[in-house]
Amino acid sequence: MTEELDAETLAFAHRMFDLARAGSTQELAAYVDDGLPVNLTNDKGDTLLILAAYHARPDTVAALLARGADHSRTNDRGQDALAAAVFRSSAEAVRALLAAGADPAHGDPSAAQTAQFFDLPEMAELLRAG
C-alpha cells in the first residue's frame, strides 16, 4: 500500500513540474494556494520557479513569485530562475524576477554570466537596468 501511495505522490509531483513547464498558471497556482509547497524541488534541484523561467512562462513565474517562491534557490548545477530566464531570453520573466529582488550575480553560472557567455546583449542590458 505504501508503494502505491509513493508512486501516486511521485506522479502528482511530476504533474506539478509539468504544469510549471507548460505555463498552466491558474492550475498550478490553485494547487499552491491549496497547500502545494511553492518551492517544490525535483531530483535535479529544479524548483517550479526555475522550470517556469526556463520554459519562458512569465505569467507562471509571476504567479509563483506572488505566492512566495524563492528566486534565490539554485538547482544542482548552480543555476537559479533568473539565469534560466536569461538563457531563454524571456524579458518578461527576467523583469518579474528582478522586481522580486533576484540578483544577477547570484548562482554559478549567474544570470550575468549566462548573458555574457551566450552573447545575449539585450538580456545583459536588462540585467544592468534591473
TrEMBL record:
Look up keyword Repeat and say if it applies.
Answer: yes
Show me the ANK repeat boundaries.
44-76
Q: Which UniProt keywords apply?
A: ANK repeat, Repeat
Q: Name one Pfam family in it.
A: Ank_2
Stated name of the protein:
Ankyrin repeat domain-containing protein
Q: What is the lineage of its organism?
A: Bacteria, Bacillati, Actinomycetota, Actinomycetes, Micromonosporales
